[in-house]
Amino acid sequence: MNIATSTQMKNSFGRYLDIALSQGEVLVERHGKIVAKLISYQKSQTYLADSLKGLAAKNEDPAE
């Protein structure tokens, strides 16, 4: 898991874009707390699809 401070992210954004592309995500920390996640476009699509599958499974009627 990659973690960058907000200052590191600001000063080296291209580097963290490359990391997100190759490793999927970078967490952004500010004042010692995780405040954001930079996620690759490819991972965001699979994340969204997996989330929707989870919601669909959660909403299925067990009586059917």
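Above is the first protein from milestone M3; the second protein from the same milestone is given next.
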Amino acid sequence: MNPDATPLVQFRGADISNGEVVVVENLDLTIRPGEFVYLTGRVGSGKTSVIRTITGENPLLGGSGHVGPFDLTNLKNKQIPYLRRSLGIVFQDFQLLMDRSVEANLRFALQATGWKDKTAMEERIRQVLEAVRLDHKSYKLPHQLSGGEQQRAAIARALLNEPSLILADEPTGNLDEETARGIMNLLFDINRHGTAIIMVTHNQSLIRMFPARVITLENGVCREIASQA
């Protein structure tokens, strides 16, 4: 991580809303290329609201915020799809299309983000499935996969457009401990190859097992509680 690199995400004095009311006040937060950052806090502390602000789902109510070249204070509706295409997003509940194979899920995501060359799409699908070690199950439907495999498919989808930043909102929340460790190993491997990751979690044992920078939200205030290599 280069401390002089242009930030991927930067908030200054930002008021973060849950879509209606402010849940985090005066947020100062900088995420740089190649960082792995945990975002922690109690239920309702505003963790997911921060993620939704980064993706343009929730409006920024005060202060300033930037995600790459996008200014969140003046974000236009027509810019939001382009903002989201620059990010990889991983959800707790996977959000796969249950009537399509893993490969078809990925193809749908590529088409939705403007890919048209069939050969290029097939090659990119092959690359990301190999990266998450799921290439041997590309033909299976989501319900034929374990929870960990479904999350690997979701991570593959997040990698499709080679984002510089992945947002992972409780990606291990629905997984048993052993499977969660496997997903964490995968995320850290992706991070070692240069992709920054912001991971929302309340699982302190995983944070201890996989140390990185930790940001906590409490009573509407953000503070850094650890920074470990």
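Note on the second protein: Residues 1-86+164-229 form a domain with the Rossmann fold fold (CATH 3.40.50.300).
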